[in-house]
Amino acid sequence: MSFINENFLELQDSYLFSTIAKKVAKYSEENPDKKIIKLGIGDVTRPIIPACKEAMIKAVEEMSTEEGFKGYGPEQGYDFLRNAIVENDYKSREIDIMPDEIFVSDGAKCDCGNIVDIFSVENKVAITDPVYPVYLDTNVMSGRSGKYNEKSDTYENIVYLPVTAENNFKPEFPKGKVDMIYLCFPNNPTGTVLTKKDLEGWVKYAKDNKSIILYDSAYEAYITEKDVPHSIYEIEGAKDVAIEFRSFSKTAGFTGLRCAYAVVPKSLMGYTKDGKEVSLNNLWNRRQCTKFNGVSYITQRAAEAVYTEEGKKQVKNNIGYYMVNAKIIKEGLEKAGFVTYGGVNSPYVWLKVPDGMTSWKFFDELLEKVNVVGTPGSGFGPHGEGYFRLTAFGNVDNTREAIKRIKNYFKKC
Ligand code: PLP
After folding, report:
1. In CA terms, which of 28, 229, 275, 337 is 20 to 30 Å from 106?
2. What does CATH list as the number for 52-309?
3. Does the CB atom of residue 265 touch ligand 1 within 6 A?
4. Ligand 1 centre from 218 Cα, in Å?
């Protein structure tokens, strides 16, 4: 008999995007003449930039020759890309990261999910609430969550750190000691950020408690304000307490191409039960070499091209395009009387739904009255209730039109 991993039975079905899709499909079927504008899903829409396209064409041609052919590449990524990452994402900010601390992968989602392999099932995990669901579900799968409580919509062994307007979207330190802390800033879904001072507090907490911070900065390219760290390693001492996840997905439109990386500093240690220090860099390297065969050469050449002069300019243009949308959404909603958060250092605008409405009620109202689709905040965790997410990843004309409709409708209400 083959027994299953029963931890999977603790997972709650995520109805969020499937419920949205069903509601939108039903509405479209009943109202075929209505033009629905979707500002819900967090996926990019701008095409791959020319610098990456040209790099890929060149790599394909190279691979098609006897001399240029490449089979399996290094599991950790090619040196050319690891070096480019170090130079451009870290050295340029005076952060001292070595190429062998960079692990190139096919996505930050996989990295955030797979990292749990190298940690004890007994670790206490803290996540923010609302949260990018991958952090929670991968800990449920690997047996760290305990039982689900339907009434509170929480797991018994997970420490939830609310991020709401009441605490200015800054998670408070856990009351007790936790071993693993997931922080994602700029945040998905709230679009909010932490300052350098805030992050210093987290690095100190982690040092004091010998905890590890799992820092997801997938949206760092959207930061516009000065005091907002792009990397947790801008904080002194962070190399002793933090793993950082980065992705080319939202930076350079790689959601379909797939390339990301994790930084696991050599000074970062975990502990055995009897208190012996073990290098997490070594453990992650071992894990990757066993379970992962690297990102394609063609994709890594495309990622390298993001760091060329042309690539940087083109990426900046695309991000600028999305940030124009973010501004249209944020300013338009505020003119319509909504309170909004995020949208300044992030492609996500998080808004408070009108009093007396739930996130889902607001979803229905937007869909039916103005034919605009967003994402109900409650789908990201219990403290997301009463909030709603709109994304800046759409087409600028559609975004303008969506906000015009919202303004017209809610002004009348
Ligand atoms: N981390 C966060 C916070 C995200 O929002 C997303 C995607 O939406 C990812 C990671 C996934 O990134 P990737 O496309 O590199 O898997």
Report:
1. 229
2. 3.40.640.10
3. no
4. 6
